[in-house]
Automatic annotation (TrEMBL):
Matches recorded under PANTHER family: BIFUNCTIONAL OLIGORIBONUCLEASE AND PAP PHOSPHATASE NRNA
Official protein name in the record: Bifunctional oligoribonuclease/PAP phosphatase NrnA
InterPro entries assigned to the protein according to its UniProt record, in alphabetical order: DDH_dom, DHH_sf, DHHA1_dom, Oligoribo/pAp-PDE_c-di-AMP_PDE
Provenance organism: Peptostreptococcus equinus
Domain DDH, chain residue ranges per copy: 21-164
Domain DHHA1 residue range list: 228-325
Signal peptide (from-to): none
Pfam families in alphabetical order: DHH (PF01368), DHHA1 (PF02272)
């Protein structure tokens, strides 16, 4: 954090000075996306700013508990002369708001930890070494405490921040979880983060439909050269197992966690002609490089991309061909 104090202070000065804000994040919401957005939204409310949380997508059911009384608007904001704060969004085109909201913003502030950040913002705090965007928001808020002498992180802010931290670190299993992540977790628990509620909702509340489709994916897992595992879900599978597209992302790590496998690939058909790829690696494959082949991005050990106008079979053939080059 010490290397970014100057940019954090620049962002804080701007947030204190300006009055109108919109907060958003990337398409296909996840724990870090929602946790960082809600924490920033509630922080701005606490310092008496006019702010709206805009996200034109569905919440995963496992994260609905975080919303509480927060008002989520879908591209129908009435705020004028606003600054858009894009959290956890490495690319301008993945910000989950209408194009008019993007174009009409006076300024865009980006807070993000993706290696593939495209540097689109007017003011940016991008640190690829942080575990999560939630950890970066935590850095901003603790710096606010230092500068303004106010204990700003309450339970309503601590809980979404802790959620984003545990989801992006795989409950502290992944290599991006370091000492600073554990210190942050301890701090948030002291501030009232509801750990038990988070764990129950995020990790212990899967539907029976989820386990049935998980069994289907595992039963049909493909091994390539004993180093690559590919799991597949078709749009028809979602209908057959009565589950939402956004509720199966947590299947992705199962593709990686097979003994001897270095790279896991999860292929999801959202609808005909729209296929999402998720990549996870263990030790040496750079998932960001693989995802870029398909116009995506992310982190070294976890990345993704969306492929349009191709069938699942066509996408799988292409991705396996490219993935072999990284093994």
């Amino acid at each position: 954090m010490k290397f970014f104090i100057e940019v954090i202070d620049e962002i804080l000065d701007y947030l204190v000075k300006e009055d109108n804000f919109m907060v958003s994040s990337h398409v296909n919401p996840d724990g870090d996306n929602i946790g960082s957005s809600l924490a920033m939204y509630r922080f701005l409310q606490k310092i008496d700013k006019n702010v709206e949380y805009v996200l034109d997508d569905e919440y995963p059911s496992s994260l609905e508990f975080l919303r509480d009384d927060s008002k989520l608007v879908s591209n129908k904001s009435e705020i004028k002369n606003y600054t858009l704060i894009a959290l956890d969004s490495g690319d301008y085109n993945r910000i989950c708001v209408d194009e008019n909201i993007l174009k009409n913003a006076n300024k865009i502030i980006c807070i993000d930890h993706h290696h593939t950040n495209s540097e689109y913002a007017d003011l940016a705090y991008v640190d690829v070494n942080e575990s999560s965007t939630c950890q970066m928001v935590f850095n901003i808020l603790t710096r606010f405490d230092e500068r303004f002498g106010e204990d700003i992180i309450c339970e309503k802010i601590a809980t979404p921040l802790y959620t984003g931290l545990v989801t992006d670190t795989g409950n502290f299993q992944y290599s991006n979880a370091d000492a600073s992540s554990l210190i942050m977790a301890s701090n948030l628990l002291d501030r009232g983060a509801k750990k038990e509620e988070i764990i129950e909702n995020v990790f212990q509340k899967n539907s029976i439909s989820y386990y049935r489709i998980l069994g289907h994916v595992l039963n049909n897992m493909e091994l390539v050269d004993n180093k690559i595992a590919v799991g597949t879900v078709y749009n028809k599978d979602l209908e057959d197992y009565d589950i939402k597209y956004d509720d199966i992302d947590s299947i992705t790590p199962y593709t990686r966690d097979i003994d001897g496998v270095e790279l896991g690939i999860f292929v999801k058909e959202k609808e005909p002609g729209v296929v999402k790829l998720s990549f996870r690696s263990k030790s040496y494959v750079d998932c960001t490089q693989l995802s870029r082949v398909f116009g995506g991005g992310g982190h070294i050990r976890a990345a993704g991309a969306t492929v349009l106008d191709k069938t699942v079979e066509q996408v799988k053939e292409l991705v396996i061909k490219e993935a072999r080059k990284f093994i």
